[in-house]
Amino acid sequence: MKNYALAVIPGDGIGVDVTDAAMKVLNTVASRFGFGLSPQTFPWSCEYYHETGAMMPEDGIETLRGFDAILLGAVGWPKTVPDSVSLHGLLLPIRKAFNQYANIRPHRLLDRVEGPLKASAFDILCIRENTEGEYSGAGGRVHQGKSNEVAIETTIFTREGVERILRFGFEQARKRRKHLTSVTKSNAQKHAMVFWDDVTRELAAEYDDVTVSQMHIDAMAAKMVMAPEQLDVVVASNLFGDILTDLGAAIQGGLGFAASANINPDRSSPSMFEPVHGSAPDIAGQNIANPIAAIWSAAMMLDHLGEAEAAKAVLAAIEDATRQGVGIRPGSHTTDEITAKILGVLEN
Ligand code: NAD
Ligand code: IPM
Ligand code: MN
């Protein structure tokens, strides 16, 4: 029997509730599909920070390296720990250290879920560059007296980084509707963004079976709302992909539906699976967070581990639940009710 070592980091706020839901679903499919899971839970969070002065131990990355995959809830409790400390102490270093450069974020409107748009066809796959770009951390603050203070944040695109994420997007497009939209802002930013556009054109010539559109991020945001049916695979830089995927989540019916996989495609280190949303302090501890994004992310993890049938069963159970009207609008059901419905479908 195959057995997977799973590092589980529930994190903060609703991260804890939705990870608990995802683990229940994982345990259920593991026994149904005949594989084993050895989960180890790590309490790394803002609470952990208060206790120890760090978001994770010094050897945290080395500890995680030995696992087959990482399941994460959400990180951040800005009331007591600045986001610049919590996210840079846990989530972002994991993505970088394990070279999880491809952040896959599927956006699809599930049956009966009420999105804000009239369009019923909404099915895009956002591929977000996940290790460099606007998140490179290059920059600083130059103090020359308060009135002359300067803050710099530099976007870094490397040939390797841009080429590999675009290639990843092209490969995904080949498996879908063979259309790729590359998103930049090269009319305003004339170095990094123009470079990304150039690499897109080079690769487009190579992947000539894929239709390529190049769009600016502003027009793209409008298109996602006005004509999402014209989109298939969307490839974007770290920051642009971050913003577009909250928009994608909203069109899907809310942050509670959007799943995400931080993938290291060469598998030299573990990949990490987490919902797109954060710790949602405004609804934490109320049993009202939608666990579907986390459960869907767990399904993406199963698929990555090679348990494709189990992954399909989890997605089918999510779809069955919404088809039966469970979790289709904010507040319609509790976290426990949605989880129980999905478990019920899986057990039958
Ligand atoms: P958020 O995603 O936590 O919340 C935004 C809004 O969406 C809130 O109104 C929230 O209630 C709602 N929401 C989010 N998830 C939901 C769910 N599953 N079901 C129902 N409603 C849901 O974004 P934020 O408020 O900007 O961030 C809160 C904290 O989380 C911050 O510290 C932020 O940095 C962090 N954050 C972490 C991650 C991550 O760990 N991957 C992602 C985003 C934000
Ligand atoms: C996400 C989050 C993170 C990001 C934050 C919390 C650093 O918003 O995963 O979408 O911007 O990548
Ligand atoms: Mn985000």
From TrEMBL:
The keyword Manganese applies. GO terms for molecular function: D-malate dehydrogenase (decarboxylating) (NAD+) activity; magnesium ion binding; NAD binding; tartrate decarboxylase activity; tartrate dehydrogenase activity. Pathway: Carbohydrate acid metabolism; tartrate degradation; 2-hydroxy-3-oxosuccinate from L-tartrate: step 1/1; Carbohydrate acid metabolism; tartrate degradation; 2-hydroxy-3-oxosuccinate from meso-tartrate: step 1/1; Carbohydrate acid metabolism; tartrate degradation; D-glycerate from L-tartrate: step 1/1. Transmembrane segments: none annotated. Residues 5-342 form the Isopropylmalate dehydrogenase-like domain. Keywords: Manganese, Metal-binding, NAD, Oxidoreductase. Its EC number is 1.1.1.83, 1.1.1.93, 4.1.1.73. Pfam families: Iso_dh (PF00180). InterPro entries: ICDH/IPMDH (IPR050501), IsoCit/isopropylmalate_DH_CS (IPR019818), IsoPropMal-DH-like_dom (IPR024084), TTC_DH (IPR011829). Has multiple catalytic activities. Apart from catalyzing the oxidation of (+)-tartrate to oxaloglycolate, also converts meso-tartrate to D-glycerate and catalyzes the oxidative decarboxylation of D-malate to pyruvate. Belongs to the isocitrate and isopropylmalate dehydrogenases family. This is D-malate dehydrogenase [decarboxylating]. It comes from Thalassospira profundimaris.
